[in-house]
Design goal:
The chain is an all-alpha fold and about 160 residues long. The chain contains six helices and no strands.
């Protein structure tokens, strides 16, 4: 379930609780069975609307985001730690760039930003690893690793 669906379900539960509370109050005051039936029908209508909207939201999200969302923590950070930590880690931070944390990566290096969120082509990190300039020691990044980092940047370079 995505966040929108969860929020819609929680909202519907809250509405159902409010509707039920109103229903109990009306039943006590009016002592009428018809109010309970109307409340149940209203709750059913609300639940049906929530379910309908949740399905539409999921369909819309799938249509607008056919690419899987790349996770910084699960997909990008392991690549950086494996390939860049020797020169941009805790004990040695060349040119002011630390890849140990998301904040360090986005802070950039002594020569400026290395990530331009939403624009991998303009991001210095992608240009350096694509051209083979980086990493200077160790194995070069594979095309798949570069594609993962580029996709993450193009998706907004989120801390996820």
């Amino acid at each position: 379930m995505n966040k929108k669906t969860i929020l819609l379900v929680l909202l519907s539960i809250a509405i159902l609780i409010l509707v039920s509370a109103c229903s109990v109050s009306n039943d006590v005051e009016n002592n009428a069975i018809s109010n309970e039936e109307e409340s149940n029908q209203a709750a059913d209508d609300i639940q049906n609307e929530v379910n309908s909207n949740a399905v539409e939201d999921v369909e819309t999200e799938e249509e607008s985001n056919p690419i899987n969302l790349i996770s910084y923590e699960n997909d990008v950070l392991p690549i950086l730690l494996n390939s860049c930590i020797e020169c941009h880690g805790t004990s040695d931070v060349k040119r002011g760039l630390s890849v140990i944390t998301y904040a360090g990566l986005l802070a950039g290096s002594s020569s400026g930003a290395v990530i331009i969120a939403g624009d991998a082509e303009a991001s210095k990190l992608i240009n350096l690893v694509t051209s083979g300039v980086m990493p200077k020691s160790g194995a070069r990044l594979t095309s798949e690793q570069i594609e993962v980092i580029a996709a993450w940047i193009n998706q907004g370079a989120l801390d996820n």
